[in-house]
Amino acid sequence: MATYYEGGEKFLAEGDVSLPEYKRLKQLLYLNKLVLFGIPLVIIAVLAMNGKSVPVLAVCLVCLFWLAGSFFSQGSEELYRSDKSKAEKSEVSIFRDSFEIKGEALTFKGYWSEAGACLEDKQFFIIRGCPEKELVFIRKLPGQEERMSAFFRETFAKKYHKSGIFCGFFK
Questions:
Q1: Which H, E and C letters describe the chain, residue by residue?
Q2: For 87-111, how does the pLDDT look when each residue is reduced to its tens digit (9 = 90+)?
Q3: Which CATH class is domain 11-17+84-162?
Q4: What is the pTM assigned to this prediction?
Protein backbone atom coordinates (compact mmCIF):
# COMPACT_ATOMS: atom_id res chain seq x y z
CA MET A 1 0.00 0.00 0.00
CA ALA A 2 1.62 3.25 -1.12
CA THR A 3 1.78 6.06 1.43
CA TYR A 4 3.44 9.45 1.62
CA TYR A 5 6.84 7.86 1.71
CA GLU A 6 6.57 4.81 -0.50
CA GLY A 7 5.13 4.13 -3.91
CA GLY A 8 6.11 7.45 -5.44
CA GLU A 9 4.06 10.42 -6.52
CA LYS A 10 1.33 10.09 -9.13
CA PHE A 11 1.25 13.86 -9.76
CA LEU A 12 2.84 17.06 -8.49
CA ALA A 13 0.33 19.90 -8.88
CA GLU A 14 -0.34 23.43 -7.63
CA GLY A 15 -2.85 24.22 -4.91
CA ASP A 16 -3.16 28.01 -5.04
CA VAL A 17 -6.32 29.78 -6.12
CA SER A 18 -7.03 33.47 -6.88
CA LEU A 19 -9.98 35.39 -5.42
CA PRO A 20 -12.09 35.34 -8.65
CA GLU A 21 -11.39 31.62 -9.05
CA TYR A 22 -12.31 31.00 -5.40
CA LYS A 23 -15.63 32.85 -5.76
CA ARG A 24 -16.46 30.90 -8.92
CA LEU A 25 -15.56 27.57 -7.32
CA LYS A 26 -17.64 28.30 -4.19
CA GLN A 27 -20.62 29.14 -6.42
CA LEU A 28 -20.05 25.91 -8.31
CA LEU A 29 -20.05 23.92 -5.07
CA TYR A 30 -23.32 25.47 -3.89
CA LEU A 31 -24.97 25.08 -7.29
CA ASN A 32 -23.88 21.44 -7.34
CA LYS A 33 -25.61 20.93 -3.98
CA LEU A 34 -28.71 22.81 -5.14
CA VAL A 35 -28.98 20.69 -8.27
CA LEU A 36 -28.56 17.44 -6.33
CA PHE A 37 -31.21 18.44 -3.79
CA GLY A 38 -33.35 20.39 -6.25
CA ILE A 39 -34.02 17.60 -8.76
CA PRO A 40 -36.42 15.72 -6.43
CA LEU A 41 -38.21 19.01 -5.68
CA VAL A 42 -38.63 19.72 -9.40
CA ILE A 43 -40.04 16.24 -10.01
CA ILE A 44 -42.50 16.64 -7.15
CA ALA A 45 -43.57 20.11 -8.37
CA VAL A 46 -44.09 18.90 -11.96
CA LEU A 47 -46.13 15.93 -10.77
CA ALA A 48 -48.20 18.16 -8.50
CA MET A 49 -48.96 20.57 -11.35
CA ASN A 50 -50.12 17.77 -13.70
CA GLY A 51 -48.22 19.34 -16.61
CA LYS A 52 -49.78 22.80 -16.24
CA SER A 53 -47.48 25.83 -16.31
CA VAL A 54 -44.31 23.70 -16.51
CA PRO A 55 -42.39 26.36 -18.52
CA VAL A 56 -43.16 28.98 -15.87
CA LEU A 57 -41.99 26.57 -13.17
CA ALA A 58 -38.76 25.87 -15.09
CA VAL A 59 -37.94 29.59 -15.43
CA CYS A 60 -38.66 30.16 -11.73
CA LEU A 61 -36.40 27.28 -10.70
CA VAL A 62 -33.52 28.48 -12.90
CA CYS A 63 -33.83 31.96 -11.34
CA LEU A 64 -33.93 30.39 -7.87
CA PHE A 65 -30.74 28.38 -8.53
CA TRP A 66 -29.00 31.46 -9.95
CA LEU A 67 -29.97 33.69 -7.00
CA ALA A 68 -29.11 31.03 -4.43
CA GLY A 69 -25.62 30.58 -5.94
CA SER A 70 -25.05 34.34 -5.83
CA PHE A 71 -26.36 34.54 -2.26
CA PHE A 72 -24.18 31.71 -0.97
CA SER A 73 -21.01 33.15 -2.51
CA GLN A 74 -21.37 36.53 -0.79
CA GLY A 75 -19.07 35.66 2.13
CA SER A 76 -16.44 34.14 -0.13
CA GLU A 77 -14.17 37.19 -0.15
CA GLU A 78 -13.95 37.31 3.66
CA LEU A 79 -13.26 33.57 3.83
CA TYR A 80 -10.60 33.86 1.15
CA ARG A 81 -8.81 36.75 2.88
CA SER A 82 -8.98 35.05 6.30
CA ASP A 83 -7.12 31.94 5.05
CA LYS A 84 -3.73 32.97 3.62
CA SER A 85 -2.99 29.41 2.52
CA LYS A 86 -5.51 29.68 -0.35
CA ALA A 87 -3.63 32.49 -2.11
CA GLU A 88 -0.05 31.40 -1.54
CA LYS A 89 1.79 29.20 -3.98
CA SER A 90 1.59 25.66 -2.70
CA GLU A 91 2.72 22.33 -4.02
CA VAL A 92 0.35 19.35 -3.89
CA SER A 93 1.92 15.90 -4.01
CA ILE A 94 -0.65 13.33 -5.01
CA PHE A 95 -0.12 9.69 -4.10
CA ARG A 96 -2.25 6.63 -4.63
CA ASP A 97 -3.95 6.80 -1.22
CA SER A 98 -2.99 10.25 0.07
CA PHE A 99 -1.97 13.81 -0.67
CA GLU A 100 0.36 16.38 0.85
CA ILE A 101 0.17 20.17 0.53
CA LYS A 102 3.33 22.18 1.15
CA GLY A 103 3.35 25.96 1.30
CA GLU A 104 4.74 28.76 3.44
CA ALA A 105 1.68 29.06 5.69
CA LEU A 106 0.52 25.45 5.59
CA THR A 107 1.77 21.90 5.50
CA PHE A 108 -1.12 19.47 5.39
CA LYS A 109 -1.35 15.73 4.88
CA GLY A 110 -4.49 13.75 4.26
CA TYR A 111 -5.86 10.48 2.96
CA TRP A 112 -8.40 10.14 0.16
CA SER A 113 -10.48 7.83 2.37
CA GLU A 114 -11.00 10.71 4.84
CA ALA A 115 -12.28 13.10 2.16
CA GLY A 116 -16.01 13.51 1.58
CA ALA A 117 -16.18 14.05 -2.18
CA CYS A 118 -14.40 15.32 -5.28
CA LEU A 119 -15.83 17.85 -7.74
CA GLU A 120 -14.05 18.36 -11.06
CA ASP A 121 -14.14 21.75 -12.74
CA LYS A 122 -12.57 22.89 -16.01
CA GLN A 123 -9.40 24.04 -14.21
CA PHE A 124 -9.54 22.47 -10.72
CA PHE A 125 -10.33 19.45 -8.63
CA ILE A 126 -12.09 20.44 -5.41
CA ILE A 127 -11.79 17.97 -2.55
CA ARG A 128 -14.45 18.49 0.15
CA GLY A 129 -14.76 17.20 3.67
CA CYS A 130 -11.17 16.63 4.79
CA PRO A 131 -10.99 16.52 8.61
CA GLU A 132 -8.57 19.45 9.02
CA LYS A 133 -9.29 21.50 5.90
CA GLU A 134 -12.78 22.21 4.51
CA LEU A 135 -11.78 22.50 0.85
CA VAL A 136 -8.63 21.44 -0.99
CA PHE A 137 -8.09 22.97 -4.44
CA ILE A 138 -5.87 21.13 -6.90
CA ARG A 139 -5.12 22.88 -10.17
CA LYS A 140 -5.19 20.67 -13.27
CA LEU A 141 -1.85 20.06 -14.93
CA PRO A 142 -1.63 21.00 -18.62
CA GLY A 143 -1.50 17.85 -20.73
CA GLN A 144 -2.40 15.63 -17.74
CA GLU A 145 -6.11 16.49 -17.47
CA GLU A 146 -7.42 13.11 -18.64
CA ARG A 147 -4.97 11.15 -16.54
CA MET A 148 -5.80 13.20 -13.42
CA SER A 149 -9.54 12.88 -14.11
CA ALA A 150 -9.22 9.11 -14.40
CA PHE A 151 -7.24 8.95 -11.16
CA PHE A 152 -9.80 10.97 -9.16
CA ARG A 153 -12.76 9.19 -10.78
CA GLU A 154 -11.26 5.84 -9.75
CA THR A 155 -10.21 7.05 -6.29
CA PHE A 156 -13.54 8.63 -5.31
CA ALA A 157 -15.91 6.37 -7.31
CA LYS A 158 -19.46 7.39 -6.31
CA LYS A 159 -18.19 10.47 -4.45
CA TYR A 160 -16.75 11.94 -7.69
CA HIS A 161 -18.76 14.53 -9.62
CA LYS A 162 -17.85 16.39 -12.78
CA SER A 163 -19.37 19.84 -13.12
CA GLY A 164 -21.62 19.99 -16.14
CA ILE A 165 -24.33 22.45 -16.97
CA PHE A 166 -23.15 25.15 -14.54
CA CYS A 167 -19.46 24.80 -15.45
CA GLY A 168 -19.32 27.78 -17.81
CA PHE A 169 -21.76 30.12 -16.06
CA PHE A 170 -19.30 31.83 -13.69
CA LYS A 171 -16.14 32.82 -15.54
A1: CCCCCCCCCCEEEECCCCHHHHHHHHHHHHHHHHHHHHHHHHHHHHHHHCCCCHHHHHHHHHHHHHHHHHHHCCCHHHHHHHCCCCCCCCEEEECCCEEEEECCCCEEEEEHHHCCEEEECCCEEEEECCCCCCEEEEECCCCCHHHHHHHHHHHHHHHEEECCCCCCCCC
A2: 678 888 888 888 888 888 778 888 8
A3: mainly beta
A4: 0.69
